[in-house]
Design a protein that fits this description.
Blueprint (H helix, E strand, L loop, with lengths): L1 E5 L3 H13 L3 E6 L2 H10 L1 E6 L6 E5 L1 E5 L3 H9 L3 E4 L6 H18 L6 E5 L6 H10 L4 H10 E2 L4 E3 L13 E3 L4 E5 L14 E3 L3 H24 L5 H5 L2 H22 L3 H16 L7 H4 L3 H4 L7 H9 L5 H11 L7 H13 L1 H7 L8 H16 L8 H15 L2
Parallel strand pairs: 1-2, 1-6, 2-5, 3-10, 6-7, 7-8, 11-12
Antiparallel strand pairs: 3-4, 9-11
Helix pairs in contact: 3-4, 4-5, 7-9, 7-10, 7-14, 9-10, 9-13, 9-14, 14-17, 15-16
The chain binds 1,4-dihydronicotinamide adenine dinucleotide (NAI) and 6-O-phosphono-beta-D-fructofuranose.
């Protein structure tokens, strides 16, 4: 069995590669980093360390690699595989779509009855594989698409494992948390497929995906944004702060009430799930940087993502949202010169104003009750943290107090 995986990064080497290799696949990574590609080709294996007390190690074997720029070689590999997976970041899916399309074209040109091909985008977010399908089909002619519809499927998925940014002497080595979960809906699969060992096939993806996205991802990024404002650089530091821990739990109780209402989870079981996820954020066996978990704030603040979607849904259901509002306000204050989305977010706030950013980027119109609540929380948070040197809120906070003075009767 052959699999082609795009992205030899943390989740690719730390999660998808190990699962597929253990399940009997020959895994071909498609990457951009020349050194990693050469090492994968030469060694055909790499080490993974579990972030537990014993630092248990295992080897992932039966792997190789191709450079993303070698389009024809990648297309050949796809033409010959049963499975294509990705972990490149949701925003980068469009960049690999043309190469995947070329692979599909080649595969279809070789047989009038090709074997099924499953293409699974293992990215955080809702509908990743379907988004990839759209991008891929933009590169194909209508007659090829028609043919592809019969043997190519793009099942959405949920993947969960924390793999921090890290550096080792061996460029292939990766340290991962022991926990992992990978869910695929049976309805997305076609033909007589081989089940991947380590993947759980379920009837409906939504409850699993939303539970993970609005607990693990919402809670994790909330801890990162709260932690950033307090001056912490790692999630471990942030989660050791009882005040932040309580606020993260507050956020997760709000998303939890919404998930219980929407999906009928047992409330006490869900509370146990929340507490287990918070322990994962605090894992002291590795260091996870605030800059990784807070990365790409514009994406994380977009309408279908981990902060806004649960806030809007909870509001719609008449549930409490004050901790979510506080997490959103903190995210709006996230600054990082090395993170292009954080730079764009702050530029947008400074040039268009926070109200316009709430309407246009977060998708919360001025007349929505959450709009004014986020605005107020944003101003209060600016004022609260104005003393923090280097955070640059002083000017905003001062202009706000001046505005408040001139507005007063
Ligand atoms: N690290 C984690 O704990 C988890 C990450 N994910 C998701 O997995 C995906 C990858 O995340 P990580 O592995 O952490 O990131 P990473 O930065 O370690 O790896 C991303 C890989 O994709 C490649 N890449 C990036 N942009 C590309 C482009 N335009 N074209 C081709 N290749 C490109 C990079 O070279 C890199 O090898 C993201 O969607 C993330 O949300 C999901 C669950 C857990
Ligand atoms: O990869 P993203 O979407 O930027 O977000 C990082 C998130 O991914 C995870 O690593 C796993 O879902 C979480 O720890 C973290 O919240």
């Amino acid at each position: 069995m052959k699999a082609v995986h795009f992205g030899a990064g943390n989740i690719g080497r730390g999660f998808i590669g190990p699962v597929l290799s253990r399940s009997g696949y020959k895994v071909c990574f498609v990457g951009r980093n020349k050194r990693k590609i050469a090492e994968l080709q030469k060694r055909g294996q790499y080490p993974v360390t579990l972030a537990n007390e014993n630092r248990d190690k295992f080897i992932v074997d039966n792997v190789t690699a191709i450079n993303l720029n070698d389009t024809e070689k990648v297309a050949e590999a796809i033409a010959d595989a049963e499975l294509v997976t990705t972990a490149v970041g949701v925003s980068a899916l469009k960049d690999i779509a043309g190469t995947i399309a070329r692979g599909i074209e080649l595969r279809l040109s070789r047989s009038s009855k090709p074997q099924p091909l499953h293409i699974i985008a293992c990215e955080n977010g809702i509908g990743g594989s379907q988004r990839l399908r759209k991008s891929v089909y933009r590169h194909l002619r209508p007659d090829v698409i028609k043919q592809a519809e019969r043997s190519v499927a793009f099942p959405n998925t949920m993947v969960d494992r924390i793999v921090p940014v890290q550096k080792h002497a061996d460029p292939l080595e990766v340290m991962v948390e022991p926990f992992s979960e990978w869910i695929v809906p049976r309805s997305g699969m076609i033909g007589d497929y081989n089940e991947i060992q380590g993947v759980r096939y379920v009837d409906s993806l939504d409850p699993y995906l939303e539970r993970k996205l609005f607990t693990v991802n919402t809670g994790h990024c909330s801890a990162a944004y709260f932690g950033y404002l307090e001056g912490y650089t790692t999630l471990q530091e942030a989660m050791a702060d009882p005040g932040i821990r309580a606020r993260v739990y507050g956020v997760l109780k709000e998303t939890g009430a919404m998930l219980v209402r929407l999906h009928g989870f047992d409330p006490s079981q869900h509370d146990k799930y929340i507490k287990k996820m918070m322990e994962r954020f605090a894992n002291r066996n590795f260091k996870d940087k605030v800059s990784r978990v807070a990365r790409s704030p514009l994406r994380k603040l977009s309408p279908n993502e981990r902060l806004i979607r649960p806030a809007l849904k909870a509001h719609e259901l008449g549930l409490e949202t004050s901790h979510l509002v506080s997490a959103i306000a903190s995210a709006l204050l996230y600054e990082n010169q090395d993170d292009p989305e954080a730079v764009s977010l702050q530029m947008a706030i400074r040039s268009s104003g926070i109200e316009q950013v709430l309407s246009e980027e977060l998708g919360i119109p001025a007349e929505h009750p959450l709009h004014s609540r986020i605005l107020e929380e944003y101003f209060n948070t600016c004022i609260q943290y104005k003393h923090k040197a280097g955070l640059g809120f002083e000017a905003i906070a001062d202009s706000l107090s001046k505005a408040a003075i001139s507005d007063s009767p």
